[in-house]
Design brief:
It is a single chain. By secondary structure, the chain is of the alpha/beta class. The chain has two domains: 194 residues, Glycogen Phosphorylase B (Rossmann fold); 152 residues, Glycogen Phosphorylase B (Rossmann fold). Helices cover 47% and strands 17% of the residues. It is built from 14 helices and 13 strands. Helix 7 runs parallel beside helix 8. The protein is globular. The mean pLDDT is 93.
């Protein structure tokens, strides 16, 4: 099978990690896989190293720009015409919309994975309006929409993003890496948050909560870049002083996460956060925003601590920071949850079933 994945940005983020891991796994499974991206970056380097062909389309950007968007559709049509894929798998709102338009023009079946719909209530009004319109148009050009959670699928049906029979649920998955044996009895528990410095992530708000908790020992590492890295990173560093390490982009994220005790994700909205799944894979105790995608990851009863307010977050952090046994129990539970539900094999099976259904309908 020939598959072309399309995504806007080539740097690392949740959607990019999903695309890279899926594309490499499909390549190893015998498919002919390529990625078309709007920019180059470390994620695309990883794809190339994994045997996946990468094409950079410079007109494929995130901002609304009619001339560039028309040029991007033309470039995508050229890619599909020359490569003759059996299926186009689209990712990210803007890339997903333009790729589905191009695929329809070239009569190629297309599947779109929604990595968290941008028209959530917590998003700004203008963003909600534009993204809803874009998702609706894209849904009616494409052939299938993959949602990461049942809640996202319900949202897609409620807003008629696509026909009900074209909406599927396939949770994220990652290749397994054996959990690292760590000393959870550290006198100073190490926390980590891996996320881009950009909404909906809330590094500054997390720092404000932590600044009230100086009566107990802890340290925290922030990993990730993003458009607000300089501004937000400076705020976090000045708020927390030498207890915080603001690292920016790193190529050794897995090793850095594995060296910590507790993973935090503080965010206004999420699809199914890859960074949190990576922490569960590493066997860390996890504390995160009480959001549908996070609840799906944690399961019932939850294997991590959920927080809806700053007060909830402080209480959850105090609980895990002051109890070695809590950290150990949550870490074991998170690792087991990953092994049982979120491996790359599980995701591959789900995506493969969507491909098969879509191709049958297209014949």
């Amino acid at each position: 099978m020939k598959i072309v994945h399309v995504i806007t940005k080539g740097d690392f983020g949740g959607a990019q990690t999903h695309v890279i891991e899926l594309a490499i796994a499909q390549h190893h499974d015998g498919a002919e896989v390529a990625i078309s991206a709007g920019s180059d970056g470390p994620a695309m380097d990883r794809a190339r190293a994994g045997g996946v062909d990468v094409t950079i389309l410079t007109h494929l950007g995130r901002a609304v720009a009619p001339r560039a968007d028309v040029a991007a559709v033309r470039a995508l049509r050229s890619v599909f015409r020359s490569g003759q894929p059996d299926i186009v798998h689209c990712h990210s709102s803007k890339g997903g919309l333009l790729a589905r338009i191009a695929a329809r023009r070239e009569r190629v079946p297309s599947v779109y994975t929604a990595h968290g719909f941008p028209f959530q209530r917590a998003a700004p009004l203008v963003q909600r309006s534009l993204s809803l319109a874009g998702e609706w148009v894209g849904g009616h050009f494409g052939d299938a929409v993959i949602c990461l959670t049942d809640e996202e699928a319900d949202l897609a049906r409620r807003w008629h993003i696509a026909r009900s029979e074209e909406i599927f649920v396939v949770p994220n998955g990652l290749p397994d890496i054996q959990a690292v044996s760590r000393d959870t009895s550290n006198d100073v528990p190490a926390m980590v948050m891996v996320a881009r410095f950009f909404p909906p992530k809330m590094q500054r708000e997390l720092a404000a909560v932590l600044s009230t908790m100086t009566d107990i020992p802890w340290s925290i590492t922030f990993i990730g870049d993003g458009p607000r890295f300089d501004e937000w990173g400076e705020t976090v560093a000045s708020t927390l002083g030498d207890r915080a390490h603001v690292l920016g982009h790193r190529d050794d994220v897995e090793e850095l996460v594995a060296a910590c005790d507790i993973a935090i994700l503080w965010s206004k909205y999420e699809g199914m956060p890859i960074a949190l799944l990576e922490a569960m894979r590493a066997g860390l105790a996890c504390v995160a925003s009480d959001l549908p995608g996070v609840r799906c990851l944690f399961g019932d009863p939850p294997v991590g601590l959920l927080a809806a307010t700053d007060h909830d977050l402080e209480q959850a952090l105090r609980r895990v920071l002051t109890s070695i046994e809590t950290r150990r129990e949550l870490g074991r539970a998170a690792r087991h949850r990953f092994e049982s539900a979120f491996t790359i094999g599980e995701m591959m099976r789900g995506v493969g079933e969507v491909y098969e259904t879509t191709l049958k309908r297209h014949r």
